[in-house]
Amino acid sequence: MIRLSVDLMGADAGVAELLKGLYLFHKRRLECTFLLFGTRAALSSELKRYPLPKHLFEVVYAQDYVNSDAEVFRTLKSGIDTTMARALHSVVSGQAQGVISAGNTGVYLALSRFILKTLEGVFRPAIISQIPTCRGESVMLDLGGNLDNSSKVLVQYALMGKIFCQKVLGVESPSIGLLNVGTELQKGTDALKEAYDMLKHQKGLNFYGYVEGNDISKGTVDVVVTDGFTGNVALKTGEGTMRMMSFMLNRVFRSSFSARCAGWIAKPFLQDLKAYFDPRVYNGALWLGVRGVAVKSHGGTDSIGFSHALETAYDMVRINIVQEIQNTLLQQISTSE
Amino acid sequence: MIRLSVDLMGADAGVAELLKGLYLFHKRRLECTFLLFGTRAALSSELKRYPLPKHLFEVVYAQDYVNSDAEVFRTLKSGIDTTMARALHSVVSGQAQGVISAGNTGVYLALSRFILKTLEGVFRPAIISQIPTCRGESVMLDLGGNLDNSSKVLVQYALMGKIFCQKVLGVESPSIGLLNVGTELQKGTDALKEAYDMLKHQKGLNFYGYVEGNDISKGTVDVVVTDGFTGNVALKTGEGTMRMMSFMLNRVFRSSFSARCAGWIAKPFLQDLKAYFDPRVYNGALWLGVRGVAVKSHGGTDSIGFSHALETAYDMVRINIVQEIQNTLLQQISTSE
């Protein structure tokens, strides 16, 4: 039986919306149990609105929570009795197998590294997520975990991304692409060129080579490897572009009476499309490389989005992603020694 | 009367397609004259297919042209008699006021700096282009001119981007955003933090602060300032996402008989949308900061796209963007002294 620790505080969406999402997820996964973390003031009254069965849900109140503008350093020093830190500790103590939060990203990443610790051999944990493409789905990392990444870090991202893609998307030998400003060998930074050379000679890796920004949604490769700064901007640019096109679609079909009629007829098909690109479906990014399943939900998501992030955490525990990554890295270390 | 030098070689699209685009543009701008650069083998036979009036078009044959896989260093040393270099030289000698090429981007940028030279006070030239947003259009720079940019370079990009936005989009006091992985002050690289502080204290600049990837298409600011690596990836990611959504729209409306019917009814409205997002309309990026109008067209564009890039070059000459940028930078230098 899987038990998830859920930090319900610090999200723009608010406690009520997250609880609603939790309830949606609970209805789909009746076998999953939960530890809920909140402050008494925020949580106790909201909880009464949901018929959560007592044997599946346990509530833990903390004194404080991590604010959206909290600073990493200060929280590391004095944030022990926050909902986020206590939720992470519950994974270390074995009370839960995975943790999820929609709170402050920077603090969550720092606390995860500090409390869960990184896996043996991991240089830097990365944020990974599935993304929609023309060919189905790909995965991309790092999406903002670390801003400054050297070639050896990028190479490790490729390895971790491969395992994630195999286990989550079921691709046997995922193709790996290194995100660059062009596909020619002379393009890019020195770190990228070094990483390219290392990946080219890596045994057992289906390395495609460089890919460009437009290759992400084309689905040219199964795993897009990049540094945290570029990955974060690319992810958000893609999401923003999808939102812009949805916005313009709505506007076009409201521009006149005949447009409204056409829009009404086209609606069921447009809704199919909307569902495919719904960013809520892709909500839930994993901190890859720490000793535990730690999933980050968008802070501004709604209940449906949060339920998907819970689904991600549940899946990651189910496929035992942490152990899979650890085994691969240890194997890697022993063969290179 | 404006005269443009057009390098017709080295593009994936091929000479015939570019000539077709040139002819489209000529039909719109009958007063513009041209210097066409090509190799005799590629150009002479193609030229016969187009009824280009002799008093408007002059053809210059070069021995060679810059290949798509040509190396920057080698071309700088031995690429004097290429169509690209000769087209650039024609601007220096005053035979033409602007140059356009759809050839090798890296070589074009390097040759532009080498032949045209940079404007006084410019640290590094940047690639700038208009981009579609929910609110209309914004501009973004650098889109791949330089990969490694310090804070003082980013600050100068903001200044140059402001002038471009004023002159091209007619925005009196354009808002400037610095692309980052979050909007909080502690986020980002040291160069970004330094640039933020410098821009905050810059007089006469409408500095908005940090923006994220999703702000680009939201149109949060008029000018998005970023380094060449991030800008290149963001631009291509946005374009790729638009292409993916068009592809999926087509697929949805072909999925069944009823979908085809609905698609047929919705077609005129979807075409309005398609026209708005057509990347060909945004084709034509400017090298900002060199002593002359040098416009880069996508190598893989078609005739319509190439005609838009010619339009960009024509507009840049008409509004005298080079002198505007130079005046602003000299003013900047004299006030800071």
TrEMBL record, chains A, B:
Pathway annotation from the record: Lipid metabolism; phospholipid metabolism
Enzyme class: transferase
Family matches, as Gene3D superfamilies: Isopropylmalate Dehydrogenase
Gene Ontology, cellular component aspect: cytoplasm
Reactions mediated catalytically: a fatty acyl-[ACP] + phosphate = an acyl phosphate + holo-[ACP]
InterPro entries to which the protein is assigned, alphabetical: FA_synthesis, Phospholipid_synth_PlsX-like
Family annotation (Pfam families): FA_synthesis
EC numbers on record: 2.3.1.274
Compartments, as annotated in UniProt: Cytoplasm
Gene Ontology biological-process annotations: fatty acid biosynthetic process; phospholipid biosynthetic process
Entry keyword annotation includes Transferase: yes
Keywords: Acyltransferase, Cytoplasm, Lipid biosynthesis, Lipid metabolism, Phospholipid biosynthesis, Phospholipid metabolism, Transferase
GO molecular function: phosphate:acyl-[acyl carrier protein] acyltransferase activity
UniProt keyword annotation of Acyltransferase present: yes
Role noted for this protein: Catalyzes the reversible formation of acyl-phosphate (acyl-PO(4)) from acyl-[acyl-carrier-protein] (acyl-ACP). This enzyme utilizes acyl-ACP as fatty acyl donor, but not acyl-CoA.
Subunit structure: Homodimer. Probably interacts with PlsY.
Family: Belongs to the PlsX family.
NCBIfam families linked to this entry: plsX (TIGR00182)
Annotated protein name in UniProt: Phosphate acyltransferase
Provenance organism: Holospora curviuscula
Organism taxonomic ancestry: Bacteria, Pseudomonadati, Pseudomonadota, Alphaproteobacteria, Holosporales
Gene name per UniProt: plsX
